[in-house]
Design brief:
single chain; alpha/beta; 5-stranded parallel β-sheet; binds adenosine-5'-diphosphate; binds magnesium ion
Length: 255
């Protein structure tokens, strides 16, 4: 290819915003020549590269926007450590149909049983399926809602939360909320009812949610909506963290 032709092609690809094609066309053209590919085959490979790069960039952006605290996936989750949890059921949920059905998930169990891990892995799976996910802790969500309300920005924040196909609210129950905070959280949860999915993790059984939501009436109204279409997974057992640290200690003693 002549130099001017080469420069024009580079400039066109740049102008058309096709960076993956711009970066790889020379190499692919050499390979196509060597393999005697048709023009169509070459063009197909070149465009496929741009398509996959774009899809991957979009996925990375969705994962970034979700705000996961850590990247924990199912490949590192040991289901044998929580016999109360059905692996096929969780992997079925990872396929994401529950989000299309606007259902919810509650992961209930004592600390260290893998609730945040499973919530994150389900969130990552949803990102891979092209869904918008937001991961927040209940405490940080309430703080943000209260701040937004003070600054007359509540509607904006609510609209932003509403854009997420899946809102993951982690660690409900570690903190008992003031009346205002509980009402704001109730509003977020109730707004999503039958419109968008919610995944909540809590160390408290439902019977104790009254402590968080201040009062039986609001708790009953909330649980009614949340659990109407809900997969409830109880994650009970010994703390994984505790087990691991005990293993380490036992191992050291044996040395
Ligand atoms: P929880 O949110 O229920 O308190 P986490 O999900 O934060 O528990 O788990 C605590 C730590 O133990 C994390 O590092 C997590 O990755 C790990 N962990 C918990 N359960 C398992 C498991 N079954 N397999 C592998 N790692 C686990
Ligand atoms: Mg947790």
């Amino acid at each position: 290819m002549s130099d001017s032709c080469h420069m024009l092609l580079r400039s066109n690809l740049k102008q058309l915003r096709l960076p993956a094609m711009l970066a790889e066309f020379e190499k692919l053209a050499r390979e196509a020549g060597a393999a005697n590919e048709t023009y169509e085959q070459f063009l197909l490979r070149l465009t496929e590269l741009e398509v996959t790069t774009r899809a991957n960039n979009a996925l990375q952006a969705r994962i970034r926007q979700a705000g996961f605290p850590v990247h924990k996936d199912f490949d590192t989750f040991d289901f044998t450590a929580v016999p109360s949890v059905s692996k096929p059921k969780v992997l079925e949920l990872a396929r994401g149909e529950w989000i299309e059905h606007r259902s919810n998930i509650c992961l209930i169990g004592s600390p260290g049983t893998g609730k945040t891990h499973v919530a994150t892995a389900l969130g990552l799976a949803a990102c891979r399926q092209g869904k918008r996910v937001r991961f927040v802790t209940a405490a940080s969500l309430v703080t943000r809602l209260e701040e937004a309300q003070k600054q007359y920005q509540l509607d904006r924040l609510l609209a932003q939360l509403d854009r997420a196909d899946l809102l993951i609210c982690d660690e409900l129950g570690y903190l008992s909320l003031g009346r205002g905070g509980a009402e704001l959280l109730f509003r977020v949860f109730a707004d999503r009812y039958e419109r968008r999915s919610l995944l909540v993790t809590s160390n408290l059984p439902f019977s104790e949610w009254g402590q968080v939501f201040q009062g039986e009436r609001m708790t009953a109204a909330l649980l009614d909506r949340l659990t109407h279409r809900c997969h409830i997974i109880e994650m009970n057992g010994e703390s994984f963290r505790f087990r691991e640290s005990m293993k380490g200690k036992r191992g050291k003693k044996a040395e």
